[in-house]
Design a protein that fits this description.
The protein has 72 residues and is of the alpha+beta class. It contains three helices and two strands. The chain has a domain of 50 residues. Strands 1-2 form a two-stranded antiparallel sheet. The longest helix is centred in the N-terminal third of the chain and has 14 residues.
């Protein structure tokens, strides 16, 4: 691994901690990594156009934030 990648890895671990080991830690990790993402940003798209032109279903950052709030 290059020195640049070593530095990036070290800085990321310092900022975000170790790799998540549980689903709850994974959710915390995603929310920390994308803290500045808007609520309407689609994280996981389930369908596109199935329910009509331009209609997308899935999970947004706002959904993940709401789920996190409900769990904590």
């Amino acid at each position: 691994m290059s020195r640049t990648m070593d530095r990036i890895r070290r800085e990321a671990i310092e900022q975000y901690g170790d790799a998540p080991a549980t689903p709850a830690e994974a959710l915390d990790h995603v929310l920390a990594m994308f803290a500045d993402a808007p609520d309407d940003w689609m994280v996981l798209e389930a369908t596109k156009g199935l329910y009509g032109d331009g209609v997308r279903t899935g999970l947004t950052m706002g959904d993940l934030r709401d789920l996190h709030a409900a769990l904590t």
